[in-house]
Amino acid sequence: MQKAGLEKISGFFFFTEPALLATDAKHIRLVLTNDFDYFHDRGVFVNEKDDPLSAHLFSLEGTKWKRLRKKFTPTFTSGKMKNMFEILLKVANELNYVIRETIENYEERVEIRDFCSRFTIDIIGSCAFGIECNSLRDTHSEFKEIGMQCFGNSAIEMFKLAFMSAFQRFSRKIGCRFTTKRTEEFFFRIIKETIDHRQKHNVDRNDFMELMIQLMQTGRLKDESSLDESTDESPLTFNEIAAQCFIFFVAGFETSSSTMSYCLYELAKNQDVQNRLRSHIHETIRNHNGQVTYEGLLEIPYLDQVINETLRLYPPVSLLQRKLVKPYKVPGTNSYIDPGLVVFISVYGIQRDARYFKDPLKFDPTRFSSENYKNIQPYSFIPFGEGPRQCIGIRFGMMQVRLGIITFLKNFRVEVCEKTAPVIKLAPTSPMLLPKHGIQLKISKI
Question: What is the chain's mean pLDDT, rounded?
């Protein structure tokens, strides 16, 4: 690697491999968007042969990623989200009942992350597989156990993940896996049984699995408009479907449940914000004949301000990475960076940087009001990434979080208790931004 000579970019070694850390919003914009053709791969571990579930949209590179991204983008339109809303609402109603029962049993102090995880697991299980996971009722459901297994949880697993990312060719050569054999067998079995059942009984359901079946049968969705000549209509394989269902489940439940948990934690500490948000929620529900509706979810700007401020302080994915695929001339210099080098972007760091956010550790949803949002430096707020590899499931994730927060606040109050940590300590052995000791809060009826 030639010397880059860039300010606000640091060099370091990731094991034995040189890497860069971009800490300036303008440079981050170059990597994620402007010069995407140079940085279109993530450089994370994938092993299609020995670990087929690792070959999903998040990890795939080059033409394989482009093909799948193009096929899956239509599955996350606003119309598709609206079609799935009734499925989410059914789970939200169950969450409401479970919270009430918990309080009636004099268990006001709860581990809020556990509540939120069970809620999002039931949603993803229902939308992705058409299966009632029943995690809200059964705290030991298999879906929950498998989901929690995928994140972190020991220093050895963290080291293994980093090792496989740093030495990918060697790791593939010796057959390293990201997922366990039990996880693979579980997802393959569930997906095969679901597909077989639907095809045998002609089941047509407005969920993610129905869209996957269409892509596996014909290579396209039924309601897609006319395709251009460059569109690849080749059907997806069973392994491709399984890998996408796996990442949809794993990423979908954990990122959303973490955001909900941190949001409720901050609302418990900031009662004025909670009261104001609840007032907006009740007003919107009244405007929709006393019902929680898909349209109503999109009509509460202050809710999105609160969620965005939560995402700023606690981004679900705290670190992004992009791998250089061809020689890159550093703008404004005569220096080049060699292919293969990985650029890391600390989402957690830049979103708490005082250069971009005044009093950055303060929870202040007004930062994201319509008049203030326009003043935020582009690419200093990137909780879902940016550019062509931005998270494809933003709409679904936000729909889950909005509905979850509304379900908690419309009938209940969340408060701190004697076990609530004044400052969240993060788990050092997880690739996700997870609390080390959980989040204990008090819930009471309004």
Answer: 90
